[in-house]
Write a structure and sequence with these properties.
It is a single chain. This protein has 7 helices and 2 strands. It has 189 residues and is mainly α. The chain has 2 domains: 87 residues; 95 residues, Helix Hairpins (Orthogonal Bundle). It has a two-stranded antiparallel ribbon. Helix 1 runs antiparallel to helix 2, helix 4 crosses helix 6 and helix 4 packs antiparallel against helix 7.
């Protein structure tokens, strides 16, 4: 059934492209990718049937099955990640939401253990934020600055804060690149 559904989705996708129906084209593309992801899942959990199992030794058969399942598992994980984060390159909103969530999460992490200090003050902690809630905005500001790789501003990450700032910058660059990819993909239609 999978072998029949994929070509139907691909044909519909091509027809939608010809008719300049970009939403339909996008939905058909996503559906085709979902079908392929399902095929990876089936191969992962059930393995692929082999016609020559009787001619191979049991050990070779098990190794081949393990290899097939390992490859299928990696492809399944990659496809699920692409669906969750990018909707297979079709949804800029997912990347924007993921980026905003990541910025907020990092801003919440910095005050945990005095990992962020303004240049002219003491490290920001939740105790200080309870007294002056505007300090959380400073943590959010720093998280946004490092995510967008604009710089450190008047702040200094301390201890594990340096690692967090590095990860923030790295994921920021990756997510911005993915956003550009999705916009480019949509503009190319």
């Amino acid at each position: 059934m999978v072998n029949k559904a994929k070509p139907v989705c691909q044909t519909l996708e091509e027809l939608a492209s010809t008719a300049a129906r970009t939403r339909l084209q996008s939905r058909c593309f996503v559906r085709r990718q979902d079908i392929q992801t399902n095929a990876y899942k089936v191969a992962l959990f059930e393995g692929l049937p082999r016609d020559d199992e009787n001619t191979q030794s049991p050990l070779l058969s098990k190794l081949a099955s393990l290899e097939i399942r390992t490859i299928a598992g990696m492809r399944y994980a990659r496809a699920k990640t692409a669906r969750l984060t990018l909707l297979y390159g079709e949804s800029p909103w997912r990347i924007i939401a993921l980026s905003l969530g990541f910025i907020l999460a990092v801003a919440l992490i910095y005050p945990l253990n005095e990992w962020l200090r303004p240049a002219d003050g003491v490290p920001i902690t939740y105790t200080q934020i309870a007294q002056d809630p505007s300090l959380f905005l400073e943590s959010l500001y720093f998280s946004t600055l490092t995510f967008t790789t604009l710089g450190m501003g008047g702040y200094e990450p301390l201890g594990w804060g340096q690692v967090i700032a590095t990860l923030n910058t790295t994921f920021g660059a990756i997510l911005v690149a993915l956003l550009v990819f999705v916009f480019g993909r949509r503009a190319a239609r």
